[in-house]
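Deliverable D2.4 — example input (structure tokens):
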């Protein structure tokens, strides 16, 4: 009597499928265990080895689907003739669960692994367990049970893949990253903020010996940033820039520094493209006139860094603000790019004047981070979507939700290193907000809202995301147009839609006039 109902060709195909299945089982167990072991140490959850195994997991999963379908159809006719209903039904169950496993896995690798898609993640894990246990049951209730040595070899190989992968994972762990800044800390006991933090000029904490002095801006390494870091090497085309500069005087549609982000965050980039943040540098004709005037004065290039911390980080932090600037190059027309804000990892205090630090020491942890197109870019984006925890914690730190984060640039002063005279207060929205009833900080105010509000509650309202932004929750994202009072910038570029949006924002219960007494003459 034959020890198998499979033909020679079927046995060879089955052996190949079993080898892939055994690898997938050990690999899946490793991916699951590595994430559990990482816990809150999010840096440990995304080693380059882990990512390579995740990509391999998807590749093998896709590779196994077609030969598995061929085997099932090929095997089914003779299996039905054996009249073993239990084996048939368990075989069909394993096949169905495998298809579900493939569909949910591919969905997770293409779509964001978000709370809204949690069902797919849980279903994928459950189906993996069903397939593994279901196949064992199927084989042991079939007419020809597996040989003992084959069972030992299968389980042994699964264990070898699992343990070996974990060993390599542990050996390649990077150092733990510090926790992202949650809020702007108060000065330590015994530290005089006026003497020990403000230094000799200004409340931003600027060190006169800083690379970026007199700006309060810092980098983790203490030096200039690598070229292209804040623009993410998304520099657009010079031909489009030249065309728009000739027509408008500045870039309008060349979205410098955002093309990579737009692959996943199309709605947010579209909103940002109309914002005053985007038109903050030499693509803002009002600012350009001011900064070019100061740069013509004695020591003006160095002093212009005071402005550049907020308006020209892509120029200044690459070390070019103290040099001659060509206003038409991409960096000069970039404004505040996505990474100019989202690479900040620290706000020094509440003094403003660009009192932030850029995280330039840690490279992007995802594979193929520099890829701009092709298969490598697709793999990078899929990794971010399927394992977004690290990306979210790097790009959305808790301090970003505070008013102090906005205040680092929306609170300005001039001081002796800039004007050669003395300290003078400039534009300052932060203190006005803190002293208002909206923040609930001042007992003298009245008409308080039901709950305290920070800057983002009003200037980053939830808006629809019709372009399918992956960060949308219930179809909504935080507006990155940052509605406010600036209608001049959209007006000069003929953007009537944004002018109307700003006007509608201002008319929506943003101002109250109270008449306490009327005296007729």
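Example output (designed residues):
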């Amino acid at each position: 009597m034959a020890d198998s109902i499979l033909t020679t060709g079927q046995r060879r195909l089955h052996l190949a499928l079993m080898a892939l299945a055994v690898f997938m089982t050990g690999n899946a167990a490793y991916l699951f265990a590595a994430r559990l072991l990482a816990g809150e140490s999010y840096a440990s959850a995304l080693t380059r080895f882990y990512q390579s195994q995740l990509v391999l997991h998807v590749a093998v999963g896709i590779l196994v689907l077609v030969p598995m379908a061929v085997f099932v159809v090929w095997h089914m006719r003779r299996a039905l003739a054996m009249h073993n209903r239990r084996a048939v039904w368990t075989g069909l169950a394993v096949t169905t669960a495998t298809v579900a496993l493939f569909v949910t896995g591919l969905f997770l690798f293409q779509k964001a692994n978000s709370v809204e898609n949690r069902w797919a993640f849980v279903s994928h894990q459950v189906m993996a367990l069903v397939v593994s246990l279901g196949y064992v049951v199927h084989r042991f209730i079939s007419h020809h049970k597996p040989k003992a040595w084959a069972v030992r070899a299968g389980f042994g190989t699964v264990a070898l893949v699992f343990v070996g992968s974990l060993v390599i994972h542990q050996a390649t762990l990077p150092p733990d990253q510090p926790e992202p800044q949650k809020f702007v800390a108060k000065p330590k006991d015994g530290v005089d903020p006026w003497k020990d933090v403000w230094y000799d000029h200004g409340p931003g904490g600027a060190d006169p010996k800083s690379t970026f002095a007199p700006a309060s801006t810092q980098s983790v390494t203490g030096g200039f940033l690598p070229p292209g870091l804040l623009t993410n090497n998304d520099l657009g085309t010079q031909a489009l820039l030249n065309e728009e500069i000739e027509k408008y005087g500045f870039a309008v549609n060349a979205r410098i520094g955002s093309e990579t982000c737009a692959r996943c965050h199309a709605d947010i980039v579209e909103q940002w493209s109309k914002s005053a943040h985007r038109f903050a540098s030499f693509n803002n004709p009002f600012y350009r006139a001011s900064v070019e005037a100061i740069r013509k004065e004695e020591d003006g290039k160095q002093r212009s860094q005071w402005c550049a911390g907020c308006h020209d980080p892509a120029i200044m932090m690459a070390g070019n603000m103290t040099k001659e600037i060509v206003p038409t190059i991409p960096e000069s027309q970039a404004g505040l790019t996505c990474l100019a804000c989202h690479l900040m990892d620290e706000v020094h205090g509440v003094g403003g004047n660009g009192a932030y630090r850029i995280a330039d020491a840690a490279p992007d942890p995802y594979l193929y981070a520099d890829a701009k197109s092709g298969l490598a870019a697709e793999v990078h984006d899929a990794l971010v979507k399927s394992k977004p925890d690290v990306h979210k914690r790097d790009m959305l730190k808790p301090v970003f939700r505070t008013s102090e984060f906005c205040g680092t640039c929306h609170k300005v002063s001039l001081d002796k290193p800039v004007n050669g005279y003395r300290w003078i207060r400039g534009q300052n929205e932060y203190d006005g907000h803190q002293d208002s009833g909206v923040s609930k900080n001042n007992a003298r105010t009245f008409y308080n809202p039901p709950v305290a509000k920070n800057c983002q509650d009003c200037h980053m309202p939830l808006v629809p995301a019709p372009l399918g932004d992956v960060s949308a929750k219930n179809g909504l994202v935080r507006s990155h147009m940052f509605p406010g009072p600036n209608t001049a910038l959209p007006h000069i570029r003929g953007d009537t839609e944004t002018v109307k949006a700003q006007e509608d924002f201002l008319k929506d219960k943003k101002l109250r006039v109270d008449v306490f007494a009327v005296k007729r003459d």
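The beta strands are 218-219, 344-347, 356-358, 411-414, 424-428, 462-464, 476-478.
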